[in-house]
């Protein structure tokens, strides 16, 4: 399970090359559409279950304003649609950002959860809640600033000999631990209601999304996802032409920087909406890659895998467990064993690069 | 073949999931019974806003302590949302809640869908002037929970400087909702409270030199309550009890002054009011054993401690019960133990 | 090679260095007994220490029953954290290794929360044993997971397993705490490491484990030197790498587990002090270990005294003071330390 992007073409002749490419393109298309279908189905299902059971037809009719039924409309449009949309948007953003990190840093473990970015956002948000008694959009703004700050800190601390290799990850884990320590201190300074608000935020829950933050994230997704896909395509072309890489070096660096900035923005906004929902960014990419097979690395597929994961986790968190819990509790409790399994089963990869 | 298997799983999953919903039916039916009450109705909320309705509300959803207050006047809410389990919430745990829908047992989480099914016509939650919000609608709760306010108008009495004001406020709210506050069983509570206050004042007046401090011991520090932020302590002060105002409250969190255990003997009251949320009859002995300096407070050493209701009381009856206990403690206290 | 003469010259300077540190530790300990959030005159302190009677006055109670146990606890806990950090950094060859990174804190936290919610127990005296068990369980889990696979517990796998276990346990903790106000309240105070409120029973409870661990740790100097040269070289030198690593982890589990159980998670001491020791002693673990053992309690006690003096009559928890002071040190290690060896 590797996240590296440009596998050298297996075939040598132009014809075979074309066949391989066509097969890869087909597979990529099929996988992506299947994931999109799954996401759509889950999106509708999320809005069907709850204290009111609704049919898929009722949900779709209400969302698309095909039929007017005030009680159904209140439940669907006012209560369930915002949560479902935020699960969808946050999942897409985390999935896309995770796979971008993993590809650029050439490391399946280099998700934003592990390089301190999520923790940085968390620390900034908690400080706002506890010290300044902030709420709503201001907390989200701080989370954004914290994520960007943590990314810059990681850049300053770890970029010296490039980002490849495990040094980056080790420093990231150290930075994350440092932020987590400060978060713990913040919590002791809080009055109990603030501490609850902070803890609630910290666990990550798609139910806490405010309308304004959600709109911001949706806007960012519409804008940044296509940019990320374009940048990735351009980078691949550049990286394939190895001989001219010298001349193109600065363009490659620029492309990588742009892609990474896109990913940081997506993570930051996702954290701003739902708090730090851990492990989604880590596992979405590898799952998408396994489905994609040789056509690995699709950002859209990874984003959709992220949305599938988060929608499922939210369903479990809210409807399956005896008491409704924040989404992050479920993703954490499921994601940690996955990561451990990954560690236990990969041989060379775990040895360090 | 094996390469395609994951795709089939995804495709099958989406079909299965899509099929799931059609089997379930919508269950929105709700019988709205009960006699048509008179109207029109209006109430001036703690925020200063006057809420009006054509008919007197009958289907009420209330926050924990507020529900207890209404129930003490015979108004039974249809739903309750609490910040913790209703079996541990100090305002609710002794009440009979059968027939009342529990809509939330965690801060920030209210099942608005279930609440909608109750078709409420009034939501009752204290108004918190500092937060500028009613209980359950503070900053940081789930956005979804805040939608509760769209089901019905929200009213509440302002939290602030006195539990008596709070109890009186809910008395007038209950009255406006049609409660017979003069009914013997209900009026008895208020009478008991008034008697308790009178007895408390007499006991305090009999010991003019008596000082008390409200404390909450914890593993790493001793917390001394600042009456400025505790309405029940302000009430006690207004009835003549000398509750010590700590001189350096924590600037970031002025509800308390934090004393390191080295400085536990900084205040020497004649009677210690112990945070009722974690007081047991054995607490004093336990802490004397555990904290070498706890018994350096002379009142603690003499066993002059009494529980103080450091949670937001809402009813005459509950306050009367607590006052009666405090009065007993004051009667037996020795005003010359402390400094 | 001339290496041996170099080593002896070093040793001739490092030996007296240890004695200097020992004196410094004694001075800091004296400071910790005489200074605090309550102002007690030097004479009263000396009088209390001389009479050994804690019932004379509040000052003598504070001196003998609060400050003396607190200082002794600070010494053993500090020494344990310093040595545990040094061993971990040696055995994992990760300069950022520290007990916290290996999941110890989250393991202890989850057990504490469990004790509060499920068993209804309260108070630092009882948490100790839950936290101890949780810390050891988490470390064993991390080590076991990292050991799976062909090449065993490599530094990177250890760090990642630690991060994964931490994240997973933190989710469980959060899930419990969200529905239980009491647990949240207990947890958020436990979460910041502190020497306050820990008296003789806790000290006598954990001290045997810590002392045993500290004595055992001194035997690890040579094998850590071997491991530092790389596993293949260590094997070439006749070391049983897997067994050594497991033994080292057992010692770390006892040291860091008991320390965290007694005081809550204390950050940075285990991370920063071994680097300072390495800076003084060079790469020889036979010196790094005793230097860490003396330097760490000096740092911990100084931070604690600072926290007690600056906020009187309140106190700052030592974890907070170390967090503030440790952050620049951490950045320094990352930026200028020998991370290239990873």
Class of chain C, according to the CATH hierarchy? Mainly Alpha
Architecture of chain C, according to CATH?
A: Orthogonal Bundle
Portion in beta strands of chain C: under 5%
- Which two chains have the most extensive interface, and how many residues on each? A-C, 55 and 54 residues
Structural shape of chain A: globular
CATH level-two architecture of the domain at 14-108 and 207-344 in chain A: Orthogonal Bundle
- Series of secondary-structure elements of chain A, N-terminal to C-terminal: HHHHHHHHHHHHH
Shape label of chain C: globular
Q: Helicity level of chain C, as a percent range?
A: over 70%
Oligomeric organization of the protein chains: heterotrimer
Radius of gyration of chain A: 21 Å
Which class of secondary structure composition applies to the elements of chain C?
Answer: mainly alpha
The unreliable regions of chain C are: 1-5
The largest sheet of chain C, given as strand count, sense and whether it forms a barrel, is: none
Order of helices and strands of chain C: HHHHHHHHHHHHHH
Plain-language structure description:
The complex is a heterotrimer of chains A (353), B (339) and C (342). With 353 residues, chain A is mainly α. Helices cover 76% and strands 0% of the residues of chain A. Chain A has a domain at 14-108 and 207-344: ABC transporter involved in vitamin B12 uptake, BtuC. Chain A contains 13 helices and no strands. In chain A, helix 3 (70-104) packs parallel to helix 8. Chain A is globular, with a radius of gyration of 21 Å. The two termini of chain A are 15 Å apart. Chain B is an alpha/beta fold. Chain B has 2 domains: 41-181, Rossmann fold; 202-332, Rossmann fold. Chain B has 10 helices and 15 strands. In chain B, the strands form 4 sheets. In chain B, strands 10, 11, 12, 13, 14 and 15 form a 6-stranded mixed sheet that branches. The longest helix of chain B is centred in the middle third of the chain and has 23 residues, at 184-206. Chain C is mainly α.
